[in-house]
Design a protein that fits this description.
By secondary structure, this protein is an all-alpha fold. The chain is built from three helices and no strands.
Length: 95
């Protein structure tokens, strides 16, 4: 059962890293530090979007329309942190 706990924590850590990369990259694109006309930047951006859109899409169904402000990444990030905290606090069940 220890290995199941470690696999779950590793999976959540990978998702955390991908979400942080997506959030930082979105800021850099919006502030025009990165340009989507560059092939490598566009490939990374569209790849991250394809990975995270299933998560964000489900969250957007429950959030009200905020105009140009997208709160789905923030909500997903808080959910991810909550899942990590729940797993760490209940780690005794896995041993």
């Amino acid at each position: 059962m220890t290995s199941l706990f470690q696999i779950l924590m590793s999976l959540l850590d990978i998702i955390w890293f991908i979400m942080i990369a997506h959030i930082i990259m979105s800021w850099l694109i919006n502030f025009q530090v990165l340009n989507l006309h560059q092939p490598l930047v566009a490939q990374i951006w569209y790849g991250l979007n394809r990975l995270l859109e299933p998560i964000y899409g489900r969250i957007r169904q429950f959030l009200p329309d905020m105009g140009g402000l997208d709160l789905a990444p923030l909500v997903a990030f808080f959910i991810l942190i909550a899942l990590q905290t729940i797993l760490r606090n209940n780690a005794g069940f896995f041993f």
